[in-house]
Design brief:
By secondary structure, the protein is α/β, with parallel strands linked by helices. The chain has two domains: 2-116 and 217-271, Periplasmic binding protein-like II (D-Maltodextrin-Binding Protein, domain 2, 3-Layer(aba) Sandwich), CATH 3.40.190.10; 119-206, D-Maltodextrin-Binding Protein, domain 2. Helix content is 38%, strand content 18%. The chain contains 13 helices and twelve strands. It has helices at 2-13, 15-18, 23-29, 55-67, 82-87, 102-105, 134-139, 151-158, 172-180, 191-200, 228-241, 245-251, 267-271, and strands at residues 33-37, 45-46, 52-53, 72-76, 93-99, 109-110, 119-124, 144-147, 166-169, 186-190, 204-206, 219-223. The chain has a five-stranded mixed sheet with strand order 4-1-5-12-6. Strands 9-8-10-7-11 form a five-stranded mixed sheet, with helices on both faces. Helix 4 crosses helix 11 (228-241) and helix 4 (55-67) packs antiparallel against helix 12 (245-251). The protein is globular and about 55 Å long. The termini are far apart. The relative contact order is 0.18.
Length: 273
């Protein structure tokens, strides 16, 4: 992690000069495209040599290749720093699988959706508190763990879970650890990510049945507000790429199947929900 930190600082120090160029200009000039994401398998995470791994990064690399470049640099940061980092020019796009939300649409430009996503609730093995919804957590006065900056924070607040009962942590590993240690009764985050963690740790499980407080979400690639041309070019490639043999071969190892493909909801619709 120290190496990742050094790399991030080094890349960040160059942001002032590089950020003045648009994504398409950087591709034409042969400059590396900086991908901003956090460590959240299977969506996006760094490899041993800081290479960008995960299903969202795999899709992005394929699309960027079609757009004319294979030169990328990974910038790993905390989830809550992704939008500020994009705005500050520390990276060129966010590949962390960020959900399209109205409040985010005011701060970044999104590509069209790259998937249809659902959420999940993880609980200790055996679900001792009998939790099957956020309302159950609220009604029993228990603590919900989720990621700082996650959509789940606002959802929990809107449902009436007190702020002191919403534990905001760095990401999925910390959510799982909070539930395992008994500091939180349940953890709320993305279904695909939750399934991956549950498959590796027998001390937690998915709440089943589970009633989600939200409809499906739509992850996408985020761009600076000033780079509409790059969004248009990216979307043009994405349209033919989605569901292709090339795409399914790239994302299959991360658990993405045909059932995860976008359902037809557009970015404009998601931004106005």
């Amino acid at each position: 992690m120290a190496a990742l930190g050094i790399a991030a600082v080094a890349i960040g120090s160059m942001a002032g000069s590089a950020s003045a160029q648009s994504l398409l200009e950087k591709i034409r000039n042969g400059d590396a495209i900086r991908l901003g994401f956090t460590n959240e398998p299977p969506g996006a995470y760094p490899g041993e040599n800081n290479e960008p791994l995960g299903l969202v990064n795999a899709m992005t690399l394929d699309i960027l290749k079609r757009m004319g470049t294979t030169k990328v640099e990974a910038v790993v940061t905390e989830w809550g720093s992704l939008i500020p980092g994009l705005q500050a020019g520390r990276f060129d796009i966010i590949t962390g699988g960020m959900y399209i939300k109205p409040e985010r649409c005011r701060n970044v430009l999104f590509s069209e959706p790259i998937a249809t996503a659902k959420d999940a609730l993880i609980v200790p093995k055996g679900n001792p508190e009998g939790l099957h919804s956020y309302e159950d957590v609220r009604d029993k006065g228990l603590t919900l763990a989720t990621g700082a900056g996650y959509t789940a924070v606002k959802v929990a607040q809107d449902l009436g879970i007190a702020d002191d009962k919403i534990m905001q942590v760095a990401g999925p590993p910390e959510i799982v650890q909070a539930v395992k240690a008994g500091r939180a009764a349940a953890g709320g985050f993305d279904y695909m990510i939750a399934t991956r963690f549950v498959g590796k740790d027998q001390s937690v499980e998915l709440a089943d049945p589970y009633t989600s407080p939200v409809s499906s979400d739509y992850p996408a690639i985020a761009f600076p507000l000033t780079d509409q041309a790059a969004v248009d070019a990216f979307n043009a490639v994405l349209k033919d790429y989605l569901g292709s043999d090339e795409m399914m071969a790239s994302v299959g190892e991360y658990g993405y199947g045909k059932g995860n493909l976008p359902d037809g909801t557009t970015t404009a619709e998601a931004c106005n929900r």
